[in-house]
Queue: 4 jobs
Job 1
Amino acid sequence: MNRSRRVKILATLGPASSNEDMIRKLSRAGADVFRINMSHASHEILRELVRAIRNVEKEFGFPIGILADLQGPKHRLGTFEGGEIDVAPGQAFVLDSDPSPGNKERVCLPHPEILEAIEVGHRILVNDGKVQMKVTDTGNGWVKTEITGGTWMADRKGVNLPDSELMSGALTDKDRKDLEAVLKEEVDWVALSFIQRPKDLIEARELCQGKVGILAKIEKPQAVQRLDEIIELADAIMVARGDLGVEMPLEMVPSIQKKMIRKCRNAGTPVVVATQMLESMISAPVPTRAEVSDVANAVYEGADAIMLSAESAAGDYPLEAVSTMNSIAEAIEKDKGYLTTIESQRPSPDATAADAISFAATEIAHTLDLAALVCFTASGSTGLRAARTRPTKPIIALSPVPETARRLALLWGTQCIITPDATDLDNMVDTACEVAFREGFAKSGDGIIISAGVPLRTPGSTNMLRIAVIDEHGKGSVHKSTG
């Protein structure tokens, strides 16, 4: 289970990768976390996929994370008399609440919350921005627009609203039903789609009751504007570049990605970069050079995880896509400039004992050239602090709580292992040394540094460091200066 890279790989499951044998192969190839897209998965499929992943996890003996991605609010046009129409820039066009089929002058927009929220001057984008409109007038149950770009619209095409903030929350009735099903399964993360403001996370957090981590997908301008507040409330963040690139100018997406990763690193919040990373591998066995550079940039920026969507879910080469992403990440992390870049962006510790201890562990491991940092964590907070420092040495997170270990599978540089709970400090040192030796992180004569919270099993109380040296039997003795 000893991966030779720090960034994690999140692979989406789908028709091309939904059987247990393929999940086993994808895990071996490098997938650390599997994503189940609830836009396409029924509750029965969800149960089957979770069962298959847990079977593979049991076989391999190390924790595998599972992310359930909720669909969120999807806004679509109504239908047209002939199924589609031609439009031209400068043409007037009306969106209204009339359910009858549309024509060249109007069509139904069956979302009253949009018709209420939209204002003159706001933009409306149809079919991923292929048709663009600008609102020129509004009334009771209708908005008048001018076509500013595009030539064609058809039944049920998607609608994006880059300038409008809707009062409805991020969870739909379908999402609530899906979330209820997710919480009955061994799922570790839930992703919320199309959030606009911090309070969009509150309902989901109340429903989840701490059973899963909450990952906020940033794909709307309104969420970018409130990013600091959302990071504070979320357990993880996703740079969802697909819809973000529709609702915001494409040329702004790279700088937004860098900004989001930097902010998340400063906050110690895991961040995932997603969408079209190896898009051409849906139908080709190799990626484009530009895609390789895109993946490499996310790794250089210090993202916790990089994600495959259709490449692993529905493409012709799911296994090759994961293997390729793994190879790119490994190659970048061997570059001498990689760790220099990561270290130069290391945030300052917060003024807390726990943060000071975590940063001290990183400095000590580097100064003494220790083999690994080992942290004992029941809640995951010690692991999160260790990863925030982006150490040059591997992080081994030991937890007696399977759910915690699985959740940390998303975390940069962290190898998670489920172990029995430590009984005392001596047992903690023995366990850390045995695991580091057994899993190949350290050999005889190597030193490791151990961090934990004392009293044991006290969440968020990281306050102890020990240095131990491993003997030829994989046992350890506490270094005299720290005993």
Job 2
Amino acid sequence: MRILVVTQMWPAPAAPQLGVFVERQVRALRALGATVDVVTIPPAAGGVRAPLKWVRLIRRARRAARVAAPDVVLGHFLFPAGEAARQAARAVGVPYVVTCHGQDVTNAERSKLLARLTERVLADAWALVAVSGDLRDRLFSVVKALNNVELVNMGVDVHVFRPGDRDVCRHAVNAPTGGPLIVQVGAKNLAVLADAVAILRARRPGATLWVVGGADAGPGPGGCRLLGRLTPEAVARYLRAADGAAFVSLREGYGLGALEAAACGTPVVVSRGLPVAADLAPGATVLVDPSDATAVAMALDVALGLERDQPDALAAVQQQSVEVMARRTLALLERCIAEHTARPLP
């Protein structure tokens, strides 16, 4: 099978975490025997509001399709990547599938123009892949429903995010020794989380909060430490070094950061209602209302008392690995190709 992947989310030196989950899926699809070509553009200011980026990605995708002669095109992100995938597929007469991730759905919710553009992408797509049911439901509240919808998250890289020698990791990151270290993946809902750690110090003196990911590095709210953009390998070291992990964002397309913490064997506090919560083992996870700092503090205290590296928790993570999700994606694309003659593009 020849697959053309089109995305504006792809790791770059200035943004090593950007689209790393897409890169992992591409590697896994190749390992399963697929030939995968990738079309992307470097990160630049403007996001979805930069029409020149849209045009550049669309042109590159059309050219790549003519050269690579794919059997199917896979777009990651509804717009502009979905539109680029659509035009690339039409240029060579093959079907295409689009995956939505979260921010693309938020964009469609906030912009009537992007909602219309997204609707056009989905109207011609053979299938929509949503990383969670919540994301699918949100999308269908602003655009017409697409009959063929698959739920497949991007999966966690269990080769990078895995248990390891915690003492070595703590030494490597120079972890504090005067109290428990809390690590969150993603700089989200930090005011509440910082307040929660301040409350936690009454029971756990010296409790410290470090945040990996995000554009900034330096001091953050309530004295927390922002570590900025890091490679996945570095993120995994911090998670293994932590006494407990947090993932208390208010909204996520899926919530892969919580799965990464669990894969490292670290007990994690997760916002109740996030899609990822259903895929985590309850014995190593504490669910919480992310808007209540006192509740988050209590949840962190409970998590700090949980056993690390629980077999049930690690087994649950394996079911959400990149390899498992890539096999599901490949099976979907095989069906897409097989059924294309019965449902050609308009």
Job 3
Amino acid sequence: MKRYKLISAAVAALCVVSATACVGGGGARTEAPADTGTTTAAQTEATTTTPPATLKEEDKEAIAEIDTGFEKLENPTVKLLANFDLNPAAGKPKGVALEMFETQCGGKIETTLCSWDDRYDKLSTLVLAGDAPDMFSAEDLDIVPGNIIAGKFQSMDPYIDYDSDLWTPMKHVNDMFSINGKHFLGVTSTDAGVVVIYNKNTITENGLPDPAQLLEEGNWNWDTFYDMMIQFCDRSAEKFGIDGWEFENAFAVTSGTPYIDLIDGQLVSNLESQMIMNVQEYMLKLKKNDLPVPKGEYAWTVHPEKIASGKTLFYPQGAYVLYEPQNVAAFGEMEDIMFVPMPKCPQTEDYYLPSVIKGFAIPTGASNPEGTAAYLNCVMACRDNEKAIEIEQNQIFDDYGWTQEMYDMLLKTRELTEAHPVFEYYKAINDNVYDCILNPSKESYNQGTPWSDTVGSIKFMVQKELDAANEKLKNV
């Protein structure tokens, strides 16, 4: 299977975001991405690290006072295979859940680092050698359903009580990924996969309404998004409305309808649904009115620095880029940068956002699945704890330089995402489905191709692949 990473295209385009800075490690919902020190996407050899991290003594004491009732693990070592490390580098903030896991469960995380591209190959190698890892990141949304069909991961139901009070806040999301009543992911929180980044100076200088204010008023939607770009754009001045690699797929799910959905453990095609038609007609309208940055005229590169210079109005991207100073510089001074969630579809009652998850899966052959469950229980115990949230909030301010306004918007975006998460499954079935939908679904926006032409050329192949996958899912 082609292993698609939600943020990989943007990473390559920005040329400043390391793969390790893009992936969070779980914890309270306010937790910043886990820092990985020297880890890079090029590392492919197994490496175990346990670097020292920063956590204030008063914070350690506060975490120790959280009454969980968790027992000490018989096997304390949990083996993680990932392109990031839950153990932060020296001087970087330590996750609250990790501190709890170490002190209350007696556990420790040993990480085998590999490149993102090699992680499934490395998983197969370790399993064949009888050294299967216990934890594998589920954050790229490429485990369900294809890698479940392939037998690479085991049910987590023997180890996690999804009906317990501890897991109640996330049961509805974990149930979305279940197959035949079995849960294969331990999802601890959701987040918006893409937010709309902008520079407040550009908004003011062009006499435009502030998107954050529009959101507060309930008016941040497809229509106001479009109107702002129409007012701003001027090809003769090389001023465009939107840039980046992330918009097309992120915008599609604001309709509440993914191209491919998983309903009751079966894959369903929405390629010809009215909501997808509306999405594609809107993106075609953007193209016809010359609102997107014409990537073809820029050698198919993106230019986030034009946000800072006032030449581009919006840059949809994962909020993770705002945790790294070198990324922030592309958008301007920190006090001038702001973001909002993707605009709401006016035709839906609820707010739907492109959703990603934090969580892990247990590979087949894992020797310590109980340890993985214990770590995930710690994440859930910290998730809504006021003291844990306060610690993580202070880390975002102190270590990443965020403003209160940005932090409040992060919480608002996560609140909206968690209420009605939408997940896209075409990237996690097989190569054929991926290739049929990924680029063709962007043709109206990038090339001005009507969706009616595109869908007619792909729908039968996609349905054939879904039918075959659904037959296999019946036996999972």
Job 4
Amino acid sequence: MNSYNYRKIPIIFVVVKTQKYDISGLICLWALAESGIGGVLHALRLPFTGIFVGGFAVISIALIAWYSSDKNEILKALSIVLAVKLLASPHSPWQAYVAVAFQGLLSYFLFNHRQQYALRTIAFTTICLLESALQKILLAILIFGTEFLSAVDKSAINVAQSVGIELDSSVVTWLFVVYTLLHLLTGIFLGLWIPSLPQAIARAEDIANNDIEQHKPVETQNASSWKGLLFVLTGIALLLYFYLPDNAAFNLVSLLLRVILLTLTLTFAIGPLIKMLILKYLAKNKQNKAAINQVLIRLPHFRNKLIQHYYFARNNFRGIKAIKFFILGMLVFSLKGEDAATP
């Protein structure tokens, strides 16, 4: 009997040591990234909001994999985040749910154990950021077609020639390349940085909430401005009308019909189907219901803390160092369950 108790004590001690951090905070941070952080970052006037959102997501997922002893926790976190995204941000486009599912499933297969964590992380972040960029490019090609993109190129060449500039390459192709390259470099940077975060978090536990200046929440707004989109589309239409070559076999009416038909199909057929499946199998899942409600309750508190950490980092640091401190502060806050649980 004594021998049994003697062997049991060290096992309990090890379990307590490995459960030092609460990953439920990371799940909440991931959910915030997918359901509301875009509006916050847009209100704070940060550039490259899409990359910031994707960056917060992959950081949260990679650290969930690091601090979890069971890789099935990733699938559980994925189901919670998808459900919270649907409930907290029901107007999100269908492709956003596809991206979240892709990130969660990829992390489940990549992070099956901690061996070669750094290599797995850089593969994970690079693939996720590339998927985010390529998804938007492929969707643009699907909706507008290659004929439209070719017409934009020809119009841009004519505009350049009218002001005395010679263009020999595709403008659209270069835009796609630069956009993809920016996501690729971000993925590589995050993949190299994330493996160092557990040690940085352990050293930065003294970043207490009391040291963070209190700021009023920023009024958030929709990151996708319909006015801006309408302005861009109007500009493209005028460009095509005035500068489209006479011999170009391009029908603006057929393009308009194509855009309307595909947009309606994706919006009112594919989108509702994906949301219906999430609602039926994830949001109404009894096993996830308590965790989903807890995340929904904590989201406003997390959003306010994110704003406070942003202002503190901006007022005390500059450039990349400010961004790193901002993210690190949010991670420390997220992993300290006793602080995160206070709404």
